[in-house]
């Protein structure tokens, strides 16, 4: 996305769309929902004497907002270009895994999907109905599944021997 349509990578960031700042493109986390479709029920082995409860699985809902500093005559066109390019990048990289991930996502070799999640016109207007802020061109995306490890761990004993008898 840099240098065209956004001059520098630092001009893309996590922020509320109403925050005044230097961002041409802001990403705002507006909802976190449990992902029932991806819920896990199996305990996770942690060494030989412990098992951990399964992780919580969530989907993250982001609002992607274009904010051009251009003059009024060309601002709308500029914001369309910025958001259109962002949509291309997210579509082309809709599955994040391997070298595209960092931190615990990379360590656990997890895969995260990025999917456009259209919001109705009324829904979008309701989202922008705060602090007398004028509507800005935005798109909604769902990112997930994201696994949040449980802190609950249970001590167990492994089966060390078995005794099988057949009685007749």
Automatic annotation (TrEMBL):
Matches recorded under InterPro entries: Pvc16_N (IPR025351)
Pfam families: Pvc16_N
Start and end residues of each Pvc16 N-terminal domain: 20-160
Listed name of the protein: DUF4255 domain-containing protein
